[in-house]
Amino acid sequence: MPKEIIVLPLITVVLTFLPTVVLLSFFYLRDKNREPRKVLSLTLLYGGLTFIPVIFVELFLAELGILANASSVVFNLYDNLVNVALPEEFFKLLVILLYASKSSAFDEPMDGIVYGAAAALGFATIENIFYVLDGGLGTAITRAILSVPSHTFWGVILGYSVAQVKFRHKSKWLIPLALLITSTLHGLFNFFLISIEGASSYASSLGGWAILGLFHVLFITFAFEVVWIVRKVNKLRREQSSKM
User: Fold this and answer.
1) How far is Cα 6 from Cα 206, in angstroms, rounded to an integer?
2) Region of 169 on the Ramachandran plot (φ > 0 left; ψ -120 to 50 alpha; else beta)
3) How many angstroms separate the CA atoms of 204 and 193, rounded?
4) Rounded distance, CA 198 to CA 186, Å?
5) What is the share, in percent, of the chain residues with pLDDT greater than 90?
6) Are the beta carbons of 119 and 151 closer than 8 angstroms?
7) CB–CB of 35/28 below 8 Å?
8) What does pLDDT average to over the chain?
9) How many CB atoms lie within 10 A of CB 82?
10) Which DSSP category does 32 fall into?
11) Left (φ > 0), alpha (ψ -120 to 50) or beta: where does 108 sit?
12) N- to C-terminal Cα distance for the chain?
């Protein structure tokens, strides 16, 4: 059997799961007070299981808009924001609120970031499997670089907001605000990525400069999320060190 036949699927499988391992390890190891592996694993598992209700909700919402003009830029923006991003971020938030934050292990602000990442990675991993099965190696590479990290960042924002409300006594409105922010970031990410890839009926109507502009917006937003999260993680880590 040619080596290429074995190597390419192997690389694809590795790239499907490697982002989850790397990202979860990063947030787990940055936490000076390591979280119980059982609670972390269950958060990851429950995040993955949200894929089931998300699919049903997305199909239901898609049916409601079935008569809309699918080639419309406005409709596709609405579809990515409301029909896709909002349900996915909402169910991630439920895992954080209903399971992780109820655990005795969730006892300091850093935990919101760790469990938020775990819930998001659970969902992103299952979603990744289906996308990669359909799209192959190219899809695995793209999603390893952009999609899985982005899901993680949005989960971190949600978890961070829950922890701020619980431990800093911030307004409870911070949580729905975080849901709105992550859903908007998620929806725009999907919309921009689909437009850049040309995988939509309206993408052909966008000029080269528009595509280039979308690419820059996507990159800048991604970079901003990385910087914001690294700064928050480092700040919370310093707070942990000061209490030791």
Assistant:
1) 39
2) left
3) 14
4) 18
5) 65
6) no
7) yes
8) 88
9) 15
10) S
11) beta
12) 57
For residue 71, give the amino acid letter.
S
Q: Where are the domains of the chain?
A: 3-242
Band of residue 22 on the pLDDT scale cut at 50, 70, 90: very high
Number of neighbouring beta carbons within 10 Å of residue 225: 19
Of 119, 120, 141, 123, give the one whose Cα is nearest residue 132.
141
Tens digits of per-residue pLDDT, 4-14? 445 557 888 88
> Which residue in the block uniquely carries the two structure tokens 């909700």?
57
Cα separation of 236 and 234, whole Å? 6
pLDDT tens-place string over residues 135-184: 888 889 989 999 999 999 999 999 999 999 999 999 999 999 999 999 99
Q: Which of 134, 143, 137 is nearest to 10 (CA)?
A: 137
Number of H helices, E strands in the chain: 10, 0
CA angle in degrees (0–180, nearest 5) for 45-51-57: 145
CB 137 within 8 A of CB 91: no
DSSP state of 34: P
Give dist(CA 175, CA 93) in Å, integer.
9
Structure token digits, residue 126:
């299952």
Whether 137 and 10 have beta carbons less than 8 Å apart is answered as no
